[in-house]
Amino acid sequence: xxxxxxxxxxxxxxxxxxxxxxxxxxxxxxxxxxxxxxxxxxxxxxxxxxxxxxxxxxxxxxxxxxxxxxxxxxxxxxxxxxxxxxxxxxxxxxxxxxxxxxxxxxxxxxxxxxxxxxxxxxxxxxxxxxxxxxxxxxxxxxxxxxxxxxxxxxxxxxxxxxxxxxxxxxxxxxxxxxxxxxxxxxxxxxxxxxxxxxxxxxxxxxxxxxxxxxxxxxxxxxxxxxxxxxxxxxxxxxxxxxxxxxxxxxxxxxxxxxxxxxxxxxxxx
Length: 269
Fold this sequence. Notes:
This protein is mainly beta. 13% of the residues lie in helices and 51% in strands. A 13-stranded antiparallel sheet has the order 1-2-3-4-5-6-7-8-9-10-11-12-13, with helices on one face. β5 (93-101) and β6 form a beta hairpin. The chain is globular and about 95 Å long. The model is unreliable at 259-269 (pLDDT under 50).
């Protein structure tokens, strides 16, 4: 009995020491495991605890400094139900938000904000239409993800000082605004301009894991030959210069109709 009691006391001491170690675990001890999930990014000047820490520098694989990172992780993560708050700050990219891991494997995000200088992103966002420039600002009030796909979503975005860099030069597009909602895994996006820029835009898109659909009307507000030529690469123009786009992919027939209108008039200024 005496040996059993000593064994139990020793086990209790070991469990207490392990609990204290986890409770006050320095972030730098877990740095290699954290970096293994950052897709090539590295952390430097790591301070604080795993649960409440800071990296003074977040670097790319080639040593370029992107910014600094602060985080706060709930200790309930040990039970698979923790929450995580992130705050990344850099000259070209900023991100803040709170994430909660749900017991059923789903992930919930809320109070997410992001701003990015598009021309400075690496790798650059390029397409046959050109390279986008300007500033993207995104706000996600709530998102519920399963397997990385939004089951629920409430988000807004602004593309400020929108520019498309083409081989013929830079095309100013003005300011574009978007709203996105998702229910049952179907994402509905509405895109429009601010009614003052060089490009008039009215568009709606529907996306699901099975298919997507895009319906849009675009028209240059002024007589800008370069902008009109760029629009012509998207499709044929009507007599007034309006380009209508109707594209779909996957099982788009299963999605509801998405025809862009503004007060019943797609040509509203």
